[in-house]
Design goal:
405 residues; alpha/beta; seven-stranded parallel beta sheet; 10 helices; globular; binds zinc ion
């Protein structure tokens, strides 16, 4: 046998490299060995026949904003964060990034307990607040003393490759007072480590007009501090600190940051996706670079990365758009564009086989507003480094598809 596994006859869609057509993919020793129009089935030990126009083979999906510090930050295992494999390989996703579930004080849970048992590739962004055990609750940083640059640097030096980025959430009353100082200190901490800074905008604790205006000011300040590769997360948040001013116009700093190579991530989650905001942004061409789920233990009971993609399709984004936002663009966000996010000979065989299902579906944004869409996505197989993983039952009582309208 020449190959371990052959994925045959599938509609291969890899928008990051403009691949869109019927192709076979052969895998050996966990790597992609050949991509061609017709590879003989006899040459492979196992063959997956991909049939039907709805079924697509895409690069293994990457969820760039999740919470997978499973068992590390709550009273019991699984009460706050997700099991990385439940929202990873068993959900059609081959790579997840934990974004600030833990700070430097408890980051050790990843190499000690989480990474060794995960089949899914797990990337970690450390919270800039040393004891970020309140995720996803209120503030991680209550004063500048909560940011320990020395400890972060020591941790990075002792654990090469562990910290892919630094995460800050602009959440909590302290930002009204010393927001700029926290932002510049967090940026300096990320710079110390030579990694991107990812910042959560959208502050549900800022409830009156003055507090909201202050968060808008801080978002503008933040965008001016950002450098190429830094990440703004929760692009479509309806909360205070969003990127649109009260009249619906984006702040000028948004276009400037984007032109400068700042990444705009959507991270829908439980609190930061407003359908009106997302539609308005689509109308004015303010597209998210990446689609991520911001899944937590509670979030995973009602949505998934695939459902986040379907929500953007309801606005008019195409399947290639949402696949690009969860493959090549997400790989770039993580600085892993040379390793993951593309179907190419010699790379790890990370692939997602999924069905695009047409129907009348209904979704709810994080303000409770319902909206309809015409597509749902269902994972069929996940291939991670050549190994097959079956999808779980799905997020809803009936499975993977969004709710019927
Ligand atoms: Zn998050």
């Amino acid at each position: 046998m020449t190959y371990d596994l052959l994925i045959k006859g599938g509609h291969v869609l890899d928008p990051g490299q403009g691949l869109d057509g019927t192709l076979d993919i052969a895998i050996t020793s966990g790597k992609i060995a050949q991509i061609a129009a017709d590879i003989a089935a006899e040459d492979a030990a196992r063959v997956i026949e991909v049939r039907g126009s709805a079924r697509h083979v895409v690069p293994g999906l990457i969820d760039a904003h999740t919470h997978v510090a499973y068992g590390a930050v709550t009273e019991g295992v699984g009460m706050g964060s997700c099991d990385p494999d439940v929202i990873g390989v068993h959900s059609g996703v081959t790579t997840v990034s934990d974004c600030g579930s833990v700070g430097v004080a408890n980051l050790g849970v990843f190499p000690a307990y989480i990474l060794p048992r995960a089949k899914t590739r797990v990337i970690t962004f450390v919270n800039v607040g040393s004891y970020a055990h309140t995720m996803p609750g209120p503030a991680d940083v209550n004063s500048l003393a909560d940011i320990n640059r020395d400890a972060l640097l020591k941790c990075a030096q002792h654990n090469p490759g562990l910290i892919a980025g630094v995460k800050l959430r602009i959440v909590g009353p302290v930002f009204a007072e010393i927001g700029e100082d926290i932002i510049t200190t967090a940026k300096a901490a990320a710079k110390d480590l030579g990694v991107p800074l990812m910042v959560h905008i959208g502050d549900f604790t800022a409830r009156d007009e003055a507090a909201a205006a202050r968060r808008g000011e801080l978002t503008r300040f933040l965008l001016r501090q950002f450098e190429p590769g830094d990440v703004l997360t929760h692009l479509c948040t309806p909360n205070a600190g969003r990127v649109l001013d009260p009249s619906g116009q984006p702040y000028p700093e948004v276009a400037e940051a984007r032109a400068n190579g700042v990444v705009l991530d959507s991270a829908l989650g439980r609190g930061n996706f407003g359908i009106e905001v997302a539609r308005r942004q689509a109308d004015i061409g303010l597209y998210p670079d990446t689609i991520s789920s911001d899944l937590t233990a509670f979030g995973q009971t009602f949505h998934s990365l695939l459902e986040c993609m379907a929500k953007f399709m309801s606005i008019g984004y195409t399947l290639p758009d949402v696949v690009k936002a969860t493959t090549s663009s997400a790989a770039k966000l993580l600085g892993l564009q040379d390793e993951i996010g593309a179907i190419a000979v010699g790379r790890d065989a990370d692939l997602t086989i999924l069905d695009l299902v047409e129907g009348d579906f209904t979704f709810t944004d994080t303000t409770g507003q319902a909206f309809n869409g015409g597509y749902g996505l269902v994972p069929v197989h996940t291939v991670k480094a050549g190994e097959l993983h079956a999808p779980g039952w799905g997020t809803h009582p009936w499975g993977w598809l969004p709710a019927s309208a």
